[in-house]
Write a structure and sequence with these properties.
Length: 193
């Protein structure tokens, strides 16, 4: 069964190569459709979503991969969190998603390399994520420094991974990750006519 993609979302016919750029407000519909297609309906019930809900991504750390025609082929965002109550600041990466018809094309890797490089350039000290160690290990992520940290809600402990961008940034960090950073603007209620 063919997937009907909204305007701007990559499809199997989209040409490569891709390039990674800052996400724009015009990418919202395409990004959400891509996430729904790649991750399924349960994506909004994950414990990481509790840290993202009602927040905006960290300033300058929301990216999309586009094909040569400009269609969205992949997405990644990083979010501001604190490590425990009153703990140090860090970033939570996710979700990372690529059009399923374009898996193994290097798009996810390009998004990861770009996101990590930009987080380091902006002066962030550490990035955490919930994911598969064999995939994220090649970018330097591991569970070695997350033993005293926890996610809100259910998650698989061995999948909580971290990367220090500044040596020692996670030394002594513990507790449950807390949402931080910019909140979404409240929508003004509409008046009935």
């Amino acid at each position: 069964m063919a997937t009907k993609w909204p305007e701007g979302v990559a499809s199997r016919k989209s040409p490569t190569p891709s390039f990674v750029v800052a996400e724009t407000p015009d990418d919202i519909v395409a990004r959400e459709a891509l996430l729904d297609h790649a991750m399924g309906p349960k994506r909004k019930t994950k414990s990481s979503e509790k840290l993202r809900r009602g927040r905006r991504p960290s300033e300058g750390l929301a990216f999309v991969a586009r094909d040569a025609s400009g269609a969205v082929m992949g997405t990644v965002r990083l979010w501001d969190v604190t490590l425990g109550e009153g703990g140090p600041a860090a970033l939570l990466l996710g979700p990372l998603a690529v059009d399923p018809s374009l898996k193994s094309a290097g798009i996810g890797s390009a998004l990861m390399r770009h996101a990590v490089a930009e987080a380091a350039r902006l002066g962030h000290a550490a990035i955490l994520l919930v994911g598969d160690a064999p995939y994220y290990g090649r970018f330097g992520f591991s569970a070695a420094k997350t033993g005293s940290l926890a996610m809100p809600g259910p998650y698989e402990r061995h999948r909580l991974l971290a990367l220090e961008l500044v040596g020692g940034a996670l030394a002594g960090a513990g507790g449950t990750l807390k949402a931080a950073g910019r909140k979404l603007k409240a929508q003004a209620p509409t008046l009935a006519a």
